[in-house]
Design goal:
By secondary structure, this protein is mainly alpha-helical. It is built from 2 helices and no strands. Helix content is 83%, strand content 0%. Helix 1 packs antiparallel against helix 2 (43-59).
Length: 60
C-alpha cells in the first residue's frame, strides 16, 4: 500500500501542475480543452476528489 500511496502522491502532484497550466490557457483554449474531456466534473473537482481519497487512505 505504501507504493500505491507514493504513486498517488505523484499523480496528485502532476494533476496540480496540469491544473496550473490549464489555468494559464483556459481563456484562449477553452474549446480545445473541452474536446474529448474525459471527466464528468470540473478538473478542480477531480483534483479535490483525489486529495480526499488520499486523506481517507491515510486514515486507515
Amino acid at each position: 500500500m505504501d507504493e500505491f500511496k507514493k504513486a498517488l502522491d505523484i499523480a496528485i502532484d502532476a494533476c496540480i501542475k496540469l491544473g496550473e497550466e490549464w489555468d494559464k490557457i483556459e481563456e484562449s483554449q477553452s474549446d480545445k480543452l473541452s474536446e474529448q474531456y474525459p471527466f464528468n466534473k470540473d478538473f478542480r473537482e477531480v483534483l479535490h476528489d483525489l486529495l480526499n481519497w488520499k486523506e481517507s487512505l491515510n486514515k486507515e
